[in-house]
Design brief:
Pfam families: ABC_tran. GO terms for molecular function: ATP binding. The chain has 260 residues and is α/β, with parallel strands linked by helices. It has one domain: P-loop containing nucleotide triphosphate hydrolases (Rossmann fold). 30% of the residues lie in helices and 25% in strands.
């Protein structure tokens, strides 16, 4: 059984002037422990599709199942215990510390008005160490750099202990070192991952499979080597590219070619 199963999904914004197309005929799967990337031009519908997958945008038609259960037949709390989401934008911090923000990830697992247990606090501390934020727990979230805030939000998602992680451009605001560290950590974290990517070389290096979205439709899916061809990149992104094999690893490497 697939961890995430999206079948024949369609969705369109209520205000059509926001975009001239709709998500249509979307079929997508994520297996347990699999790292799946969603790529496509800006405005192709990646964020809208992710919102359907984590129970924000109700689909007009089609279904979204998590471990065989229709997420729209379950409560938001049921979904929050199983799906963690990391978005591009930073939340309002309202004077919260790093520890406060990360601890929010434990809320779906706690009874009403229950505080953090000793096990919760240990999990939070361990996770902060894993994302390179040891000793930052009492720092103000607002005082952090963009990259540090991104890692705090990753820690919040991880302490949720989800079955599925959904990430929208997870490497935004990160320098190259932390881009690589974050994606390496995600590959070994355990949950299935569905993430949108702007950087196709990162997607090629870390994803098991890719889906290409263009104007609301899946136009290709498969391994990075199957999907990231010169012809498809020109068709979808409108840019010439040289695609070869990375010299140090068996995945594609993309070199964009500037117009003459």
């Amino acid at each position: 059984m697939s961890l995430l199963q999206i079948n024949n999904l369609s969705w369109e914004p209520r205000q059509r002037q926001e975009q001239p197309w709709r998500l249509e005929g979307i079929d997508l799967q994520v297996e347990p422990g699999e790292f799946v990337g969603l790529i496509g031009p800006n405005g192709s519908g990646k964020t809208s599709l992710l919102r359907c997958a984590y129970r924000f945008n109700p689909p007009d038609t089609g279904t979204v199942h998590l471990s065989g259960e229709d997420i729209w037949q379950q409560t938001p709390r049921w979904v929050a215990r199983r799906i963690a989401v990391m978005l591009q934008e930073f939340p309002q911090d309202f004077g919260l510390t790093v520890m406060d923000v990360v601890a929010m990830g434990r809320t779906p697992h706690q009874s009403w008005f229950a505080g953090d247990s000793a096990a919760d606090l240990q999990l939070i501390e361990t996770t902060l160490q894993q994302v390179g934020l040891t000793g930052k727990g009492n720092h103000s979230f607002a005082s952090l750099s963009g990259g540090e805030k991104q890692r705090v939000l990753l820690a919040r998602a991880l302490v949720q202990q989800p079955d599925l992680l959904i990430l929208d451009e997870p490497t935004n605001h990160l320098d190259p070192r932390f881009q690589l560290e974050l994606l390496q950590h995600l590959r070994g974290a355990g949950p299935g991952v569905l993430a949108s990517f702007h950087d196709l070389n990162l997607a090629a290096a870390f994803c098991d499979r890719l889906y290409v979205l263009d104007r609301g439709r899946i136009v290709a899916s498969g391994t990075p080597a199957d999907v990231l061809t010169e012809q498809r990149l020109e068709q979808v992104f409108g840019v010439h590219a040289l695609v070869d094999t990375h010299p140090l690893a068996p995945h594609p490497r993309i070199t964009w070619i500037s117009p003459a």
